[in-house]
Inverse folding.
């Protein structure tokens, strides 16, 4: 994972500062409104993470910045993905992943 860059920042603000087609993939992994009881290992992450939902403007900026695709994780229903314009949605157990291909 030498070429992977992780950031913990306000996605909308960070993406606004990036040039067009700067990153191969932009991946959103937002915190869920309701947590699974079995995911207690993420308690520390929850304390540090932003609980704000991903906004449409952030998806627009991600599409501008990404060369290949924008990916976002959601609950199995994928309602947030649909609301944000993701059309390519796949189910993986209790999770859904949406992809916008550039």
């Amino acid at each position: 994972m030498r070429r992977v860059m992780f950031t913990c920042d306000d996605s909308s603000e960070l993406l606004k500062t990036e040039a067009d087609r700067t990153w191969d993939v932009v991946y959103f992994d937002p915190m869920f409104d309701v947590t699974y009881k079995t995911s207690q290992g993420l308690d520390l992450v929850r304390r540090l993470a932003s609980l704000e939902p991903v906004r449409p403007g952030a998806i627009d900026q991600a599409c501008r910045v990404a060369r290949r695709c924008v990916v976002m994780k959601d609950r199995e229903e994928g309602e947030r993905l649909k609301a944000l314009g993701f059309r390519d949605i796949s189910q993986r157990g209790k999770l859904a992943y949406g992809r916008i291909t550039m």
